[in-house]
Each structure stands twice: as structure tokens, then as C-alpha cells.
């Protein structure tokens, strides 16, 4: 069965979706800079030049960045580092630029159902013989026949969508390479640490031995992107075939990240405090599709540490 790409003839329609988020105050970049960075997620259709593959993760990245900046400010980080940090947060999912959510969900919801690791470090833990950086190729070797039986012959597009998870570092680097110089023209100096914190969730080893401030910014990004993702019903359905999301599950997962030493208690405490104070209510309502129940409001106002 053919998979229809996530495309639009009307890219301006996405501005309608992003406009309410752009009005929130958790930012140090200008609206022009933010819009220019998010535009990098859009990709021309490979076979239909008049069409654009819309950046599916734009709204997620924007909401994540808003929360990240608020937490970083609360923890004492200052401009100009905050400007670079916000840019990194806005671009953190560039490793999935060109994503078709239907195809992506078909591959990775099946993998989760089968108990197949979906992140590089998890894959190597189960298959320690895999050479570092060759997780995509190992996945294809193991599951080529199973994917074909599921109606997913290993076309270049399917391989690319496998790379979006198991080869995320390589694909992120490929997507960022041509735009680093463009970012400089936006008056946002590029620094290598920005790429490292983008990779922290999938590759925590990238920040081993990093300065405290850099590690903390990586923790903030991981925590906030997961808070948004676990609150984002549309993304959860498209990516993971989940029928519903809950704030309780989101904060439970953040606590698991503490136990796995991916996120510190200090970062988590600040996220909880800002949530109770209402700093993230609008952002999380938008992630929810625009509506919160009274019970969800109460939870956000009383979320425990």
C-alpha cells in the first residue's frame, strides 16, 4: 500500500497553528529569528517539486523551546547562551526533517509492539555486538523480512525513516551541516555544544565530561521535549499509535529519567514549580489540541515533586 507523504500546497496554513504559541513570552529570540529557524524543517518533495514536505515537528519544537527557555532562565542561565540554547531547542528534531508521520508511525509502532529497541543506546544494550553508529544497518539486517511482510519493502524512504531513530546523530548532522552558516546570518553564533545537547536524549554519552552548564541545558531539553511529547495527543497517535496522553504519564516518565540519571532532581523541581505557577498551562493546552479538562487543570496546579 502506498504511503502518502505529509505534504501541503499551503505552507502558510502552519502559521495559523504556530501563531498562538509565538505569542507566549518564554523566548529570547525575535519572532523573525524563530520563524526562520522553524522554516528549516520544511523540505521540498523529492518527486513533486511544486509541493513541500511540511515540518511535522515544528509546533512540538516551538512549544519545547518555550518551556526550555523558561526553565533555563529560572536556573540562572544568561544571554547570549540562552539565545544559542533556544536555537538548539528549536532545531532539536531536525534529524526528522522530511518525516512522513504515517510511514514513521507504521515502522516504529510495530517495533514497539514487538519489543524492538527504538533508540541507539537501547539497541546496543540488547545487541552489544553492533558497531557504534551502525544501529540502522543492524536493524535492517535483523528485520528486513519482517518489514516486507508488513508491507514495508526497504525503499530509500523506508531506510531513511529507520535512520530517523536509530541513526539520529548521523541524520541530524546531515540536516544541520548546510544550515549552520545560515544560522550565523540570523545573528545566532553556532557552537558545537548546541549539537551535543540536541543529541543528549538518544546519545547521553555525548555529554560525558561536559561542563555542568552544558549538561544542565541538555537535561532541560530532554525533560521539556518529553513533557510536550507526552502531552501531545496528535503526535502520540501518529508516532506511537497511542490512544491517549496524560499529564500524569508525562511526569511519571520524567521521574523515570531522574532514576536513569538523564535528568537531575534540580531540573525536575524547577519544571514542577513553573508548571504549578501556570507558566506552561497555555503551552500544554496547545499540545493537548486547545482544551484542558478541570481535572487536568487541577493536576497542573498541584503537580507533586
Can you walk me through this structure?
It is a single chain. The chain is mainly alpha-helical. The chain has one domain (7-92, 169-302). The protein is 60% helix and 2% strand. The chain is built from 17 helices and three strands. A hairpin with a 7-residue loop joins strand 2 (43-44) and strand 3 (52-53). It starts with 6 loop residues before the first strand and ends with a helix. Residues 1-24 have low confidence and may be disordered.
In short:
The chain is an all-alpha fold.
Features of the shown structure:
305 residues, mainly alpha, three-stranded antiparallel β-sheet, 3 strands, globular, disordered N terminus
Number of domains: 1
Give the H and E element order: EHHEEHHHHHHHHHHHHHHH
Radius of gyration: 19 Å
Largest sheet: 3 strands, antiparallel
Total of DSSP H or I helical runs spanning 4+ residues: 17
Please provide the count of β strands: 3
Amino acid at each position: 500500500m502506498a504511503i502518502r507523504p505529509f505534504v501541503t500546497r499551503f505552507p502558510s496554513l502552519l502559521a495559523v497553528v504556530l501563531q498562538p504559541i509565538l505569542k507566549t513570552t518564554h523566548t529570547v529570540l525575535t519572532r523573525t529569528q524563530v520563524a526562520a529557524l522553524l522554516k528549516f524543517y520544511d523540505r521540498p518533495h523529492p518527486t513533486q517539486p511544486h509541493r513541500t514536505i511540511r515540518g511535522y515537528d515544528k509546533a512540538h519544537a516551538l512549544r519545547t523551546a518555550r518551556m526550555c527557555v523558561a526553565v533555563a532562565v529560572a536556573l540562572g542561565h544568561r544571554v547570549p547562551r540562552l539565545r544559542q540554547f533556544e536555537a538548539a531547542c528549536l532545531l532539536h528534531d531536525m534529524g526528522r526533517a522530511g518525516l512522513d508521520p504515517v510511514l514513521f508511525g507504521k515502522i516504529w509502532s510495530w517495533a514497539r509492539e514487538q519489543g524492538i529497541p527504538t533508540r541507539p543506546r537501547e539497541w546496543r544494550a540488547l545487541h552489544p555486538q553492533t558497531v557504534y553508529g551502525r544501529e540502522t544497518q543492524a536493524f535492517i539486517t535483523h528485520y528486513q523480512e519482517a518489514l516486507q511482510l508488513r508491507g514495508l519493502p526497504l525503499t530509500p524512504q523506508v531506510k531513511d525513516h529507520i535512520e530517523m531513530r536509530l541513526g539520529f546523530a548521523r541524520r541530524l548532522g546531515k540536516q544541520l551541516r548546510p544550515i549552520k552558516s545560515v544560522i550565523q546570518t540570523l545573528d545566532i553564533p553556532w557552537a558545537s555544544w548546541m549539537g551535543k545537547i540536541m543529541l543528549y536524549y538518544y546519545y547521553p554519552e555525548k555529554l560525558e565530561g561536559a561542563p555542568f552548564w552544558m549538561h544542565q541545558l541538555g537535561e532541560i531539553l530532554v525533560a521539556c521535549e518529553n513533557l510536550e511529547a507526552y502531552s501531545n495527543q496528535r503526535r502520540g497517535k501518529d508516532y506511537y499509535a497511542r490512544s491517549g496522553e496524560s499529564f500524569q504519564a508525562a511526569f511519571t516518565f520524567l521521574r523515570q529519567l531522574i532514576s536513569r540519571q538523564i535528568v537531575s532532581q534540580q531540573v525536575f523541581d524547577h519544571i514542577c514549580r513553573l508548571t504549578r505557577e501556570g507558566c506552561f498551562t497555555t503551552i500544554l493546552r496547545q499540545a493537548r489540541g486547545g482544551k484542558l479538562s478541570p481535572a487536568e487543570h487541577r493536576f497542573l496546579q498541584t503537580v507533586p515533586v
